[in-house]
Here is the input.
Amino acid sequence: MSYKPVLPIGQKEKNTLINAPASPYVEGYLETIGLFPAQLHVPLQEAGNSIVSDCLGCAIGWGSARLSATLGSYVGDSGRGAQQKSLQGSTIKASHETDMSSLFSLSMSHGKQFTLYTHVGGPNGWKVASVLEELGLTYESTYLNFQSAEQKSPEHLRLNPNGRIPTIIDHGNNDFVLWESDAILLYLGEKYDTRKRLTVTDESEKHQMLQWLFFQASGQGPYFGQAAWFIRSNPEKIPSVINRYTKEITRIFGVLESVLVKQEWLVGGKMTIADMSFVMFNHFTLVHLVPTGHLGDFDFWKDFPATAAWHARLTAIPSIKKVIDQRACMLQKES
Amino acid sequence: MASASKPIVLYGWPTPNARKVTTFLEELKVAYGLDYDIEGIDIGKNVQKQPAFLKINPNGRVPAIVDRARNNFNVFESAAILLYLQQHYDKENKFGFDPKADPDEYSILLQWIFFVHGGLGPIQGQANHFNKYAPEKIPYAINRYIEETKRVYSVLDTRLTERDWLAGPGRGIFTIADANAIPWVRGHAFAGIETLDEWPNVKAWVARAEARPAFKAGLDVAYSK
Here is the structure.
């Protein structure tokens, strides 16, 4: 059976179709974990990296508890060390030791590498989830109830003194705790993006990536957040305040437009965590704020065509689409 | 040659965010002899939104830097500037951590930098706006942002319990995380928060930083137009 790859737009040259016809191992484990072939993201095999761990990464991302036993029997030797297994015409190299062991040192009872404290509606938790998904990392989401102020509970404050989400615990790194969504993105990129697909390595580009992340963290997030508050949540609708923040939304889109009209992605000539950091709040704005009419005759495609195209490319990425759909589904169930 | 001795040009004005950079540049001057040029961008006259400056920072805000020793590489976003300067000009890691050698300390540093950059600056900035600049006095808005600024001060106060500085092992060391925060916190009165008495660890921390001669010099940097 051949596997239809899911290609992130803009990275066509980096992905390839892997044909692995009629292999009892591969078909068997795919069935075990309930993966349908069309969902299998099969990235390019590079020296020192593993098709298997990447497949597993995605498979784990979709959720499977039986994977480790299946993988263990497949690559042998407890999954450690570099080995080669031939698979009816496809050659799969076992990954570098670190990759494999990090997939299996899961100490929490839920068996996933990360615990993610998050929220159903808010954008920042989903931002982290999308990067975890894209990197093929396993995580267990705990959705905190803001009505009962769970994010301010002593248990959560002990982890995150700011009492906001997201907060992560990396059980693959001595239960390391981290909060601030973009600091988390940088941590995930630094530690787990082994093929540097979502981050940059060039000195100067690293600084540009930081620049865009800080702009997102301080210039987009909090301002879009204030707009959301005054439009949706504040009991009193105060026009001058709403105007202040909707004007700023338009200004921020203008800044992005001025850059994206000249280049496809914010940095590195490819999709990175910098681009991904903007998506959820842009999505939130388009879906929840624009329809209220408070942004006047805002027309995304007409007013900010390059930005709209960039946002469309991003929301078509399967990992991002997945979290957007999951959020929509959960919000619907809640209401 | 000017650029060899003064590689960095800072575009700024007397604002908290520009002071994040001037305080750190002064610390680098004392630690390494690094000097810098400054260009005043008069935000009262909207110079920051003019095409010449938008080429340096499409967001049209200050601060921004250009590094003449690295092909006129430019950086905007004050926290990104601090990280840039620390990486390139603090070779002995006196004011930060090496991401490869000390990855967890580095991640914690980043976390506190993002917290202040995203969670204090813009929020206290809104408090400033509604307290001092908005034509209409809107009690709800003033209150909202003052209360959130106070909440952030409380988080900082908890962190600074039995610590001298935000990041680093033990009681911490002075790092760019502190330079990133203190210029805002010391401006509390402008936002409508009279004193820091409610947050004794924060109050001591601000005083501790202001007692550093280099840091103090950075706070008082003057711009010509």
